[in-house]
Amino acid sequence: MKELELPDVKDVLVEYRQMQLLYRSALKEIGTKLEILNDEFKFVHKYNPIEHIESRLKSEESIMRKLLRKGVDVTVENIQKYIDDIAGVRVICSFTPDIYRIVDMISSQDDIEVLKAKDYMINPKPNGYRSYHLIVKVPIFLSDKVIPTKVEIQIRTVAMDFWASLEHKIYYKYEGNAPEYIRTELKECADMIAFLDSKMLAINEEVRSIRQEDSR
Ligand code: GTP
Ligand code: MG
């Protein structure tokens, strides 16, 4: 039985590598869309809503692990059906209203289909995690067909990103079972970051309104 499973997974990996071309293209499409929006916004409003953009393809190992966790067979169909974040883009903004600007601008594009939206800004996770997640489909034009391809977009502030990377490291180190006091401290940090973000936003708006008055 075991001997049969291995060649199967190998076949799936060969097919998956062909699929990677599609997901890599989807990352480029979304990356370009975001850059265009940022450039236009900068031109009109004189500032960048986007601090920076990161993108990645999910590793084969994490794809396999996720399928096992979900208890489904390792097939190319299941990869496409059950894994929303093969192509992942992270958009880091300076201020929280920038997050909603990006969400609105991306969601309203004609060729983008929003499959899921999760607002962990309004509804933070119990551990304190705050971000906005979108799962979208973007059409990829190949030589003989068009394939709508899924991309996960995570949008958060610089400060929230700092928190999320530390939390992620700790989560892995303790395999999801970090000691209670560490979880409490992380939650405190998350709350401080939410406070910091709102305070920095207030300062920024104050300064912008003074500058606007000066230029009148
Ligand atoms: P998966 O967790 O990816 O299976 O999907 P889900 O249905 O739980 O989706 P969700 O939108 O909650 O999370 C998607 C991704 O967001 C994760 O894979 C992480 O990259 C990120 N994320 C979600 N929650 C947390 C969190 O508590 N801490 C950190 N650091 N990242 C998180
Ligand atoms: Mg999750």
TrEMBL record:
Pfam families: RelA_SpoT. It comes from the Bacteria. SUPFAM superfamilies: Nucleotidyltransferase (SSF81301). Coiled coil: none annotated. Residues 55-178 form the RelA/SpoT domain. Pathway: Purine metabolism; ppGpp biosynthesis; ppGpp from GTP: step 1/2. GO terms for biological process: guanosine tetraphosphate metabolic process. This is GTP pyrophosphokinase.
